[in-house]
Amino acid sequence: MIADKARLRSIRRLERIAGFRLPDRAFHGVVLDTLVSRLDFDRLDPTTREQLLEFIGDFLRCDCRKAPHCGCPERRFAATVLELRESGLDHRQISAHLDEVYGIELFPADILSYLEDSVHVLEAIEKVAVLLDRPSVAAGARTHIKALER
Ligand SMILES: [Zn+2]
Fold it and tell me: Is 112 part of any domain?
């Protein structure tokens, strides 16, 4: 999963206000728990605070009973990467955008292989949809393939 490769630049600063060690992975359950706990974000510098609030706002808002352990944060993050690609950013620009907005470190090469994998999944969906005579599903898959490959 692409979310497993994402790291938070501010993890050491977050550790300092949490008071305990945190794993490096941004979407590790312990990190997500820490982000939704009532930490004193005012002790962070303004940029880090802003980035963590964006992270929480975009990935950690759902009403699942098991939140943030429901899988929504990881799915939302994966969808965000695809949306950024479909909006015209390339893998390097996506990496820079994630860093700037959320303080997330994700290598362009990892983004590129995730985008390629996504195209392969969509191609498989398109083939099955054609076999099952589901033209609208096939067309939807094709639209996304085009948007990801351009
Ligand atoms: Zn959820």
Answer: no
In a domain, 72, yes or no: yes
Residue 76 CA to ligand 1 center (angstroms) comes to 10
pTM > 0.90: yes
**Phi, psi of 104, rounded to the nearest 5 degrees:** -95, 130
User: What is the distance in A from the centroid of ligand 1 to the CA of 72?
Assistant: 4
Query: How many Å lie between the centroid of ligand 1 and the Cα of residue 131?
Result: 33
The answer to the question of residue 117 being in a domain is no
- Say how far apart CA 101 and CA 55 lie, in whole Å: 8
Residue pointed to by tokens 């005579």: 133
Residue 77: its pLDDT value, please? 98
Interval between CA 32 and ligand 1 midpoint (Å): 12
Ligand 1 centroid to Cα of residue 77, in Å, is 12
Distance, CA 99 to ligand 1 centroid (Å)? Answer: 24
Q: What's the token pair of residue 102?
A: 């959320």
What is the tally of structural domains in the chain?
Answer: 1
Average pLDDT of the residues of the chain: 96
Enclosing domain of residue 72 = 2-107
Q: Judge whether 122 lies within some domain.
A: no
pLDDT for 150 beyond 90? no
Checking if the pLDDT of 36 tops 90, the result is: yes
CA of 135 to the centre of ligand 1 (A): 31
Q: Report the pLDDT value the prediction gives residue 139, as an integer from 0 to 100.
A: 97
